Amino acid sequence: MSVPTPGKRFQLEKEVVAAIPDLLVIKPKVFPDERGFFSESYNKTEWAEKIGYIEDLQQDNHSFSHYGVLRGLHTQPHMGKLVTVVSGEIFDVAVDIRKDSPTYGKWHGVILNGDNKHAFWIPAGFLHGFQVLSKEGAHVTYKCSAVYDPKTEFGINPFDEDINVDWPIKDKASVIVSERDTQHASFKSL
């Protein structure tokens, strides 16, 4: 089992994604020492006061995926996701599908891992997916702004050529995708 070795971060930090300003990379406080580390992965009051993050988070999810697994691209109306990695490493992707948005159809990817302890805020109106880059797999957690409803969830094929996400693992033999995800509609169908 891989033990994360995060760097020390005394202050909460927020990084706005320049290409798609509604996306945020949030860097929580982390306190490593000789025993291991402690990380304040979410603090509703401090996040609101210090970085203006005000969301009504209603559901927590935790998934484990093996190396090469590609999950997504999925979305559900009115559901934003705050994504973090407990252990391992992923390439996490958000695709803007808000019809009136100036960044409609654009995607952005970030590396999340157990060491950097970053959180990626993906607001409602975005597709979400990730690819696992670490050989030991990855434990991924999501805080969601809505409760999951299978009747309203939908997705786009993660290899859709109109979106053209540049997934880091190029060897198709190393990529594991569910049949359901590869059968999703095309971006043009939106």
TrEMBL record:
Top-level taxon: Eukaryota
Gene Ontology CC annotation, any one: cytosol
Gene3D superfamilies in alphabetical order: Jelly Rolls
GO molecular function: dTDP-4-dehydrorhamnose 3,5-epimerase activity
UniProt record, GO biological process: polysaccharide biosynthetic process
Database matches in InterPro entries: RmlC-like, RmlC-like_jellyroll, RmlC_Cupin_sf
PANTHER family hit by this protein: DTDP-6-DEOXY-D-GLUCOSE-3,5 EPIMERASE, THYMIDINE DIPHOSPHO-4-KETO-RHAMNOSE 3,5-EPIMERASE
Name under which the protein is recorded: dTDP-4-dehydrorhamnose 3,5-epimerase
Gene coding for it: Cni-C14F11.6
